[in-house]
Design brief:
Helix content: over 70%
Order of helices and strands: HHHHHHHHHH
Number of strands: 0
Low-confidence stretches: none
Number of helices: 10
Oligomer: single chain
Distance between the termini: 18 Å
Largest sheet: none
Mean pLDDT: 83
Number of domains: 2
Length: 235
């Protein structure tokens, strides 16, 4: 599989994650968390508006990707027309990348597989909700399990802030959700956010380093692999 095609599957996976997160948020807004609207009507209205906006954007993106996946060759030919305004080599490169990207979206044209992927996404995010709820319980924050659905949506926005390791954005999103909607003390909310972040990235980081070491990879080895890949593309 080409790197471009793999990148296309990552984008599709992120969209499926967004759909699942929005589904959980919708269940909170319309079913489980109606009482939060009375606690903080302004914040609740803002969360609802953001959820609706994100749903429109995600749906539009899925439709666009569905169309692109329908005829990868046609997309390549369309991109090739850029040679009218760009150098022919650059236009050809863009056309090849666009075609490979569309091929990587092939699964979106298979509804059964797409639904299976979406179905697997739900238990994954429910496990994340269990982690958030457990941390809230550990710090004695009055956040119910269904309240974790709101926290997930806020944390998703928080980690979108471009900081190293999501430091700052993650913690502020948790603090805002816990204090605005559940009246948590500020210091307890910040402490819970720090520990939750540590437990979220710690296992993945340690396992990644462990498996990399098993393969004999260190930073120098990763650099050599990157150089080999770059040389392979230039040959």
């Amino acid at each position: 599989m080409t790197a471009t095609g793999a990148f296309a599957t990552i984008i599709l996976e992120r969209l499926l994650d967004i759909v699942t997160v929005l589904g959980l948020l919708a269940s909170f807004v319309f079913i489980f968390g109606k009482d939060r609207g009375r606690v903080n009507p302004t914040g609740f209205a803002l969360v609802t508006w953001a959820g609706v906006t994100a749903a429109i954007v995600a749906t539009t993106a899925l439709v666009v990707l569905f169309v692109l996946a329908g005829d990868p060759e046609r997309l390549g030919r369309m991109m090739a027309r850029l040679e009218q305004v760009l150098p022919s080599k650059l236009a050809g490169l863009i056309a090849k990348i666009a075609e490979k990207f569309a091929r990587g979206l092939g699964v979106i044209r298979r509804p059964a597989r797409l639904l299976i992927s979406l179905a697997w996404s739900l238990p994954l995010w429910l496990c994340i909700a269990v982690g958030i709820w457990s941390m809230a319980r550990a710090f004695q924050l009055a956040i119910p399990f269904t309240g974790a659905f709101l926290m997930i949506a806020l944390l998703t926005l928080g980690v979108a802030v471009p900081t190293p390791g999501a430091v700052g954005g993650f913690h502020e999103a948790f603090r805002v959700g816990a204090t605005m909607f559940y009246g948590a003390p500020d210091d307890a909310a910040v402490a819970a956010a720090i520990v939750l972040h540590l437990f979220s990235i710690g296992p993945s980081l340690l396992l990644g380093l462990f498996f990399a070491a098993q393969e004999g990879l260190n930073f120098g080895g990763m650099q050599r692999l990157a150089n080999q890949a770059e040389q392979g593309h230039t040959v």
